[in-house]
Write a structure and sequence with these properties.
The complex is a heterodimer of chains A (293) and B (281).
Chain A: H1 3-16, H2 23-52, H3 57-65, H4 67-100, H5 106-114, H6 121-132, H7 139-144, H8 153-164, H9 166-179, H10 182-189, H11 194-223, H12 226-232, H13 242-251, H14 255-282
Helix pairs in contact in A: 2-14, 3-14, 4-8, 4-9, 4-11, 4-13, 6-8, 6-12, 8-11, 8-12, 9-11, 10-11, 11-14, 13-14
Chain B: H1 3-12, H2 20-44, H3 50-58, H4 61-94, H5 100-106, H6 109-112, H7 115-126, H8 131-138, H9 147-172, H10 175-183, H11 188-217, H12 220-226, H13 236-245, H14 249-280
Helix pairs in contact in B: 4-9, 4-11, 7-9, 7-12, 9-11, 9-12, 10-11, 11-14, 13-14
The chains are: A mainly alpha (293), B mainly alpha (281).
């Protein structure tokens, strides 16, 4: 093709597509978008790893091996190991009742399930202080029986459950509503029990959506700061979760230690993002249509 | 089976599927004990103050300044996030370039990154000796430990909401409408301003409202960078924590109720926006 042919072809293409932005605009908007994301999102992420390894790998590893850090990791994993399965069971139950049956007040119930997402993390912790604190509803009675909720594992688990409450449910509800109830009804008319209907018919249909919900729930459970901060009492080595330990180390000017724990949490966030993107790409049809927040 | 026989059998077994009572019962029990009863404790608590006491505790200059800062900066952050969220969504939906999938995945970073991690990273980045802070310091601009630090953190935390609400709407928006506008003689700018933007308006407002709501309640990513100077860079959620540490439960609950009321209003506004958007489709 000659030069003029190319020019004509290029011009023709331009005429055919009035919706195509000119190259200079593409370059401009593209650099604005990439620049904004790089400065606002990527720079902080890079800084976390840079600061964690500021003095090389040895202090990084030593900071991880600190008994208080290990205790924080253990506490975070324990709290998530309790909160995530409970919220998963709740999410499945809520989705089953809402998607497979008709009853009045359904929309209102869905709004209530979403409610924790619009409550400030600090308020999410505050409400448990008002229920279980010494000045709270059950605080004095619990103190009489020597039961500790606040400033102990149960309080941390409750606050974590509250903030991660909607994740599994809000992924499963739209997904199971889309899938309808005919397959389960067929199984039921053929004599399958409720449990085996769920296990063999529903679960295979929702497994990727369920995994997606659990993934997001788990990430938030391990990373929650505000709500847990209010109920934990910040007892070093005892009621400090990983995010709280980051704050404690940072405020005591142990920057390598703070950014080391932060780097562990950032790695968890990156793994979560990678798995999430993979699920969205590979199983797009089997996730709720509304998976884009 | 005759038609009447079918009709008769329906009321007897309205639910073919089992587990309705069990699943709904479990849902309601769990929802009530984890969410509703604790929230009730919050709403009831300020009653002991009485109306005058409630008003007195939230109308102190320090509380008012904190509420103004949280709501005001969240609004500015929502506007910034909407503008850049629109550009980012446009670039991600309309353009093809290498590394696009990666850029798309990175948008969710503020969702995935624990807020305390974001907080110390932003604080270090914008501190006078940080990567960005040192450059700005040469021009006499200070971000960290001022109200502008609050804005940076809120912008960070709100960006995914605006991008993720716009993206699906923008990709569903067919090119035909823009082509029609072009054939009718509209310039590109006119098409964007008078055809595309009005159609995207519900999504833009929804994303902005979500970013605003998140910014108002945000705590972890802000407290490190804000400096927390009372009445200057102290946000409302932090004031709740401070009041709790002073065992002023009712005072903490009073601010909590104001913030909860604000999130209720936002939730209602969002529902309204969504039904508006659904009608326009």
């Amino acid at each position: 093709m000659t030069q003029s042919h190319l020019q004509i072809a290029a011009r023709a293409r331009r005429f055919n597509r009035p919706t195509e932005d000119p190259l200079w605009l593409k370059a401009l908007l593209g650099s604005v978008a990439i620049g904004f994301i790089a400065i606002l999102l990527l720079l902080p992420l890079a800084l976390v790893f840079k600061e964690a390894f500021a003095q090389g790998a040895a202090p990084f590893l030593a900071a991880i091996a600190e008994p208080d850090t290990l205790a924080a990791v253990k506490l975070s994993l324990t709290a998530a190991a309790i909160a995530v399965p409970l919220n998963t069971v709740f999410g499945i139950a809520a989705a089953w009742s809402i998607a497979k049956f008709d009853f009045p007040g359904k929309t209102f119930l869905v709004t209530l399930i979403d409610l924790p997402f619009s409550v400030s993390p600090v308020v999410s912790g505050l409400i448990y202080v008002l229920v279980f604190g010494m000045n709270g509803w059950f605080g004095p009675a619990l103190a009489d029986y020597n039961v500790r909720i606040l400033f102990a594992l149960p309080g941390i688990v409750l606050a974590t459950m509250f903030v991660t409450f909607p994740f599994v449910a809000r992924e499963l509800i739209p997904l199971m509503m889309d899938q309808g109830r005919s397959e389960e009804e067929a199984a039921a008319t053929l004599g399958a029990s409720g449990f085996s209907t769920f296990l063999r018919v529903t679960l295979p249909n929702i497994k990727w959506g369920l995994l997606y919900g659990i993934l997001l729930c788990n990430a938030r459970a391990l990373g929650e700061f505000g709500a847990v901060s209010v109920v934990s009492g910040h007892i070093r080595g005892a009621t400090n979760t990983m995010p709280l330990h980051v704050e404690l180390l940072y405020n005591s000017y142990d920057y390598v230690g703070a950014f080391t724990v932060a780097a562990l949490l950032a790695m968890l966030a990156l793994i979560t993002l990678a798995l999430k993107s993979f699920l969205e790409w590979r199983y797009a049809d089997e996730l709720a249509a509304s998976h884009r927040h | 089976m005759s038609a009447t026989g079918l009709k008769l059998s329906i009321p007897r077994s309205r639910h073919v599927l089992p587990g309705f009572r069990l699943s709904l019962g479990l849902t309601l029990f769990y929802l009530t004990s984890i969410v509703l009863i604790p929230l009730l404790a919050l709403v009831i608590r300020p009653i002991e103050l009485g109306f005058d006491g409630f008003w007195a505790s939230i109308s102190t200059p320090r509380v008012l300044a904190a509420l103004r800062l949280s709501f005001g900066m969240a609004l500015v952050a929502a506007v910034i996030d909407s503008v850049f969220g629109f550009i980012i969504a446009w670039v991600l939906v309309r353009y093809r370039f290498p590394g696009k999938a990666l850029l798309d995945a990175v948008i969710d970073l503020p969702f995935a990154l624990p807020t305390a991690v974001a907080g110390i990273a932003l604080s270090t980045l914008y501190a006078p000796n940080g990567w960005i802070g040192s450059i700005l310091a040469e021009y006499g601009i200070r971000i960290a430990y001022t109200p502008w630090g609050v804005l940076v953190a809120m912008t960070f935390i709100g960006l995914p909401f605006t991008v993720r609400t716009l993206q699906p709407v923008l990709s569903e928006l067919g090119l035909e409408i823009e082509e029609a506008a072009a054939t009718l003689g509209a310039t590109r700018l006119q098409t964007i301003a008078r055809v595309v933007l009005p159609m995207l308006m519900p999504a833009i407002l929804t994303g902005a409202a979500m970013a605003f709501a998140r910014g108002v309640g945000e705590y972890g990513s802000i407290i490190f960078i804000a400096g927390n100077i009372p009445a200057v860079s102290e946000i409302a959620p932090l004031l709740i924590v401070t009041k709790l540490e002073q065992y002023d439960y009712a005072g903490a609950a009073a601010i909590g109720v104001v913030m909860l009321a604000a999130s209720f209003v936002m939730l209602l506004a969002l529902n309204g926006l969504q039904s508006w958007a659904a009608k326009r489709r």
